[in-house]
Fold:
Amino acid sequence: MADTSQVDERIKDISPLRRALIRPELGGIVGTVAVFTLFLLFAFDSGMFNSQGVMNWSTVSAQFMIIAVGACLLMIAGEFDLSVGSMIGFAGMMIAVFGVVLAWPMWMAIIITFVICVALGALNGWIVVRTGLPSFIVTLAFLFILRGFTIYIPQTIENKTIIGGIRDAAEGDWLAWLFGGKIGQPLFQWLGEAGVIAVFERGSRAGEPVVDGIPMLIVWAIALVIFGHILLTRTRFGNWVFAAGGDADAARNSGVPVSRVKILMFMFTAFCATVLAVCQVMEFGSAGADRGLLKEFEAIIAVVIGGALLTGGYGSVIGAALGALIFGVVQQGLFFAGVESSLFRVFLGVILLFAVILNTYIRRIITGER
Structure:
């Protein structure tokens, strides 16, 4: 009888430390702990961690988080989408044109905008899989195309690049509330009366809590993170996403519909960008041609910080969400700490470089490369 007591030599011996290092969320967890520790030490008395401060950086983090979920799944599938930022500006402008200029019901304007943007995401994916061109090039082209239309359309129709009046047009609209409303107002009112959170001391809002509810932007961010995590880790489709990004040819030979997976991920990325666009126009009450600038790069950086490999086939939605949280905390934390806000871009560059180096090391651990 064969001796089964020996360890199979084909199984690589990985130490507990290395086993921990190959968890995609590790970088995001370490970064989150480090960032919160830093600002707890240097900005605790500035109001960053009172109710209003927490709501400020939570809202900013949620913006990053929404687009990071789509970017994460697409990067794991082995592709990039550089048109995300332009898609945000384009979607917001379409809502303004349909809902304000053409005076359509706001719910109809939102639905039509989602249909157009998701269709553009499908077109992005279809061109990539049919032509074999790098998604970097295809989506870079769409970055300029969408940004150009975002500027041209309002200039042609209204002779300006900012269209307002969205908040008035959305008044009482059932679908608009799902993107611009708030939940939990009774709870926050009770917390204010109990003295747990701050209230306005004078003026027309005296006695009302400074934070009167959780914006739907944050609800959407949490919902998309949960959906993306379950999809990626608990479904067969999630396995297909990993396979498509890890080795597309081997995945096809195993029966994985690689082309369909990639197109669907482009569509989901466009969906996430549109969600953020709708939330933004409902918050600001206007659409601007410059909305979404550089958001595509910020989404990719958040995903890389969260542990995704640039080569595809490896990553975590939870890690990407933590990367987005780091962004939001740092961006607002620099303000509360009295540091020049332009240093936020320096932080992005430094942390991107560090994350890429770390992820390269992790890839070598996984693949056994020297």
User: Anything to note?
Assistant: The longest strand covers residues 162-164. Confidence is low (pLDDT under 50) at residues 1-12. The two ends are 37 Å apart (CA to CA).
